[in-house]
Amino acid sequence: MSLAKVTSAAVVGLDAVPIEVEVDIASQGLPSFTIVGLPDKAIEESKERVRSAIKNSGIDFPAKRITVNLAPADIKKEGPAYDLPIALGILVADERIPKLSSNVILVGELALDGSLRHINGILPIVSSLKKDIGGIILPEKNAEEASLVKHIKITPARTLKDLIYHFKKEKELPEYYKKFRISAPAHSEYDLAYIKGQEQAKRAMEIAATGGHNLFFSGPPGSGKTLLARTLPTIMPEMTEEEIMEITKIFSVSGMLPVGSPIVLERPFRAPHHTTSSIALVGGGTFPKPGEITLAHRGVLFMDEFPEFPRSVLEALRQPLEDGIVTVSRAQGSLTFPAKFILVAAQNPCPCGYLGDPHKACICTPTQIIKYQKRISGPLIDRIDIHVEVPKVKFEKLSDESLAEESAKVRKRVNDARVIQIKRQGKTNSELCNKEIKEFCKIDEKSKNILKAAVNQLNLSARGFSRILKVSRTISDLQNQKEINPQNIAEALQYRPKERSIY
């Protein structure tokens, strides 16, 4: 046999497609080793890894003309996961091992001594191709991650030599049957109980966590904005199994799974620096990868020093905040990544941070303050539902040794209110469309009059009007009320952005 075909897989976005690895060995011509089919540099370099791995596994590498084709040829291939299928394809074509089944996926990076190394993106490969394959052969270190997908035949291997013995029926490798248990995450180091004061901000966080609303903190340096944001995931509802799989898939593709764990059990908290580029935030690259907003999916994206981010980066947030997805378009095609996150933005009231402080004078000029505040566009501000002032904490509260309400108690209320939302409409209040707002956010005549006055006084846009109704619906859910009442509307209006004086 001079021609062999084995099956591998390529990760495209957060999904995978099967890749046929064809290997042809010709006796005529000078010895060579060529890989075609849009390989990247890592695949080009696999020639040396494959050559050394086969030689160090006790088999002579064929000194012939070897051509490897990765089909379909119009899909770009990247990464070292093709090392194993290429090596086994060569051994089949050279008649060193029997022909392999075409419905078994082969993935794995080879070390020079023939051992198999961990690769990224196993979960998307297994979950996407589960119905089309009879099993998967992969590195031993990836077996636990693959076992998250039920009813799939997993054969882990430590070395290429083990697989050679396995296919020759000399020493078969056992299947991997371990069922991974999804257990509760460890106790977080952050808890609302240890945050002094800031009752209004904590209330706003509870509403945001319940309805999935975006938050905007404004206050002087050291008032606790960052600490409040880091505590938000501890009061958000416990993740469902579907959400856990979604997040784990994203982190698997990005190569960011926790050390020693094949699964992400805690809601993500991402805090990109203000020097972050648009591509790093939204996603992209030659081979598009998820950005920070996708890594924050089902969790929190915290953007401290919000006005310090470049304008182009901030404006890139507008569409994901509205749609919950981000589409990355390149010449080769478009990929869509999920981006349902809670944005927590934080800023100082002015460049020096002390505008409006009763004890410390602001040293900024009116021009500096106006320029600072105008860095964030009106349309972006309008997409943030809840705006809260975070004042400096007084000494009396800082020195109080009693604990505030702990995160576990707040999370219980948030969970109960979230259950009400899912039962009523199948999604969070922040995700409601205009038709659903009309159906689920009905208000009485008194509430209409309050809103009418607010629209005129605050000059609310249609989007702002809808967001007040959504926040009101969340507040009523927290109080286990079937209808929105005027008190809910009044509280929601308190969280709208206020005109700030520069004097």
Structural class: alpha/beta
Could you give a short account of the major beta sheet? 5 strands, parallel
Q: In CATH terms, what is the fold-level topology of the largest domain? A: Rossmann fold
Number of helices: 21
**β-strand amount:** 15-25%
Q: How many extended strands?
A: 18
Return residue spans where pLDDT drops below 50 for at least 5 consecutive residues.
none
Major sheet: arrangement of strands: 11-14-17-10-18
Structure in words:
The chain has 503 residues and is of the alpha/beta class. A hairpin with a 2-residue loop joins strand 15 (325-330) and strand 16. It has helices at residues 41-44, 46-55, 83-93, 122-129, 143-146, 160-167, 199-211, 225-231, 241-254, 278-282, 292-295, 311-315, 318-323, 366-373, 378-382, 395-398, 407-425, 434-440, 445-458, 462-478, 486-494; strands spanning 3-12, 15-26, 32-36, 65-71, 104-106, 109-110, 116-117, 135-139, 154-157, 215-218, 269-270, 283-284, 289-290, 300-303, 325-330, 333-338, 342-347, 386-389. It folds into two domains: 3-167, Ribosomal Protein S5, domain 2, CATH 3.30.230; 192-427, P-loop containing nucleotide triphosphate hydrolases (Rossmann fold), CATH 3.40.50.300. The model has no long low-confidence stretch (mean pLDDT 91). It has 21 helices and 18 strands. The protein is elongated and about 85 Å long.
